[in-house]
Write a structure and sequence with these properties.
Elements: E1 19-22, H1 26-38, E2 43-45, H2 49-58, E3 62-66, H3 74-83, E4 93-97, H4 104-112, E5 116-120, H5 125-186, H6 191-222, E6 231-234, H7 235-252, E7 256-261, E8 267-270, H8 272-288, E9 295-302, E10 307-314, H9 348-358, E11 362-366, E12 374-381, E13 405-409, H10 413-425, E14 429-433, H11 436-446, E15 450-454, H12 462-471, E16 479-484, H13 489-497, E17 502-505, H14 510-525
Parallel strand pairs: 1-2, 1-3, 3-4, 4-5, 7-9, 13-14, 13-15, 15-16, 16-17
Antiparallel strand pairs: 6-8, 9-10, 10-12, 11-12
Helix pairs in contact: 3-4, 5-6, 6-9, 7-8, 8-9, 11-12
Length: 526
């Protein structure tokens, strides 16, 4: 055996960059092909104009034609074919002209086609190669423009589909909300008879909150505005928390859910809320796309590279092979599955991918095809030491102390009065104000211990109100909670600088609000 290196197999020429040639004589074609091949330029010799036009429809980087080919109707036929190109295309045409004055054929060609270069024969080899290389460079830029336009068109199509889905999904919960409200307004019902309608309204409101929260999460993550609250986590506990969040969908679909935990001590460094969100989204996705009575399995294992591997496998609708590469992209939904999904915006997997990657992990999907199930795999780097799950007692109570004097401020009267009524039911004393100046006046007489302030009020907004309360000689020590729809990182920073102790998002979560009030109360007694 010789030690001579084996030359790699030559790559196949790109038909989109070949030069189509129709020269004056066969001998010219042979010579030109040899010269251009030596220069690394792929050529295709055409016997006549009809063949050149057929080949041009299959793709070309440039045309190299003789003046003789353009005689008669040739120039008009070629110009018509060039004019039929898509908007992004401007195919270069190089004409090998005879010496002397311009002929009518060349004049017609230059009038009918935009990207024409006339080269007078005889031409130096270097000049011909240089001209063709320049033409092919320009043609490559056109192909890049085509790719960008196709990507933009696809993105626009996805965005349009997404907005249509969003409108549809937001209307869905509005219909039962409207119906339930109409029933409750028109007929006085006993508490036990009205309870199902209240529960219905609560479910639909929760659904709308989840839709809006998903939109906000995607916006924050894609703009790099999310910050992880990292800690040491037992994955078994995180997965079980996600299962609890997904339980309503599992029960509604009558699915069989099985956990297969190889090692309950596998631990990672991560944000417990975000990782719970990751696995809940995967479980929700499996439940939505699996027909009633399906099976969903969750596996937690350790791989050989020091990573924890979580697999969520279902017996559902599956994913076509052509979609696997795009399933995590924004605005992508598998065609024909929107109804089977029973609602949703199709951005859950985008959130999953972004959050997993923020944790230094990876996520992938596989499927044997439509109606053959799917499997999503999340890989996360493990801690070097083990942790063990601990049960966390619920420290929240259902009632607040009557010593809590809470000032609720919101320019939306319904929002302010309903929140005050809820806090009153929980045992607190409340007062309501509908503007910043009204709040300052009420606070003088009411002497609140806590304030729950809306931020986006006209005139004096919540931040200015907080600053004035902090500067008040008697009220500066009251606990302040911002309750607002503004949740971006810069909003949180602005609100914290105004003197707030806590920042909660609308609509209020009663458990979160109770916890914030209790923390403020404990701080006051410390």
């Amino acid at each position: 055996m010789s030690d001579t290196a084996v030359n790699p197999l030559p790559t196949a020429p790109d038909p989109q960059l070949r030069v189509l040639m129709r020269t004056a004589t066969p001998r010219d074609a042979v010579m030109a092909s040899a010269v251009l091949s030596h220069a690394g330029i792929d050529t295709e010799v055409c016997a006549n104009l009809p063949q050149l036009l057929r080949e041009m429809a299959q793709g070309a980087g440039a045309l190299l034609v003789s003046e003789e080919m353009l005689s008669g109707s040739g120039a008009a036929e070629l110009a018509a074919a060039i004019a039929a190109q898509p908007p992004w295309s401007d195919l270069p045409v190089l004409i090998l002209a005879r010496q002397g004055a311009d002929s009518s054929a060349i004049s017609s060609a230059m009038e009918g086609m935009a990207n024409v270069t006339v080269l007078e024969r005889p031409i130096r080899v270097a000049s011909l190669v240089s001209a063709l290389r320049s033409a092919l460079r320009a043609r490559r830029r056109q192909y890049e423009l085509r790719r960008i336009l196709e990507d933009l068109n696809e993105a626009d199509k996805r965005k349009t589909e997404f907005l249509a889905t969003l409108a549809h999904e937001l209307r869905n919960p509005m219909a039962p909300l409207s119906t339930a409200l109409a029933i409750l307004k028109r007929k006085a019902l006993a508490p036990e008879a009205a309870l199902p309608y209240y529960e219905l309204m609560g479910r639909q409101l929760d659904h709308m909150v989840r839709l809006v929260s998903d939109l906000m999460e995607v916006s924050r993550i894609t703009r790099g505005k999310i910050e992880l609250q990292l800690g040491e986590l037992v994955l078994d506990q995180v997965i079980r928390g996600a299962v609890e969040l997904s339980r309503p969908l599992m029960d509604a679909g009558k699915h069989t859910l099985s956990l297969h935990i190889a090692d309950a001590s596998l631990a990672v460094k991560g944000d417990g809320v975000r990782l719970t969100q990751v696995f809940a989204n995967l479980l929700n996705n499996a439940a939505k796309y699996t027909p009633e009575g399906g099976r969903i399995d969750v596996f937690l294992e350790r791989d050989d590279s020091g990573h924890a591997v979580v697999r969520v496998k279902d017996s559902g609708a599956g994913i076509p092979q052509a979609m696997l590469g795009a399933i995590f992209d924004m605005f992508v939904q598998v065609s024909g599955t929107a109804r089977a999904a029973q609602g949703g915006l199709g951005i859950g997997l985008t959130l999953v991918k972004s959050l997993v990657e923020l944790h230094g992990g990876t996520v992938g999907a596989k499927s044997e095809g439509q109606n053959r199930g799917s499997e999503f795999t999340v890989s996360l780097p493990l801690l070097r030491h083990e942790l063990h799950a601990t049960t966390k007692a619920d420290a929240l109570e259902d009632s607040l102390s009557a010593q809590h004097r809470i000032l609720v401020v919101d320019d939306n009267r319904d929002a302010a009065e309903s929140l005050a009524a809820l806090l009153g039911l929980l045992g607190a004393q409340t007062a309501v104000a509908f503007s910043g100046s009204d709040a300052l006046n009420k606070a003088e007489d009411f002497s609140p211990t806590f304030g729950v302030l809306d931020i986006g009020m006209p005139g004096m907004d919540g931040c200015e109100l907080a600053r004035r309360l902090r500067a008040h000689p008697r009220l500066h020590g009251m606990g302040l909670i911002a309750l607002t729809g503004w949740g971006q990182a810069d909003d949180r920073l602005r609100i914290a600088r105004a003197g707030f102790d806590h920042h909660l998002l609308k609509p209020v979560d009663v458990v979160e609000l109770s916890a914030a009030l209790r923390k403020l109360a404990l701080r006051g007694t410390a």
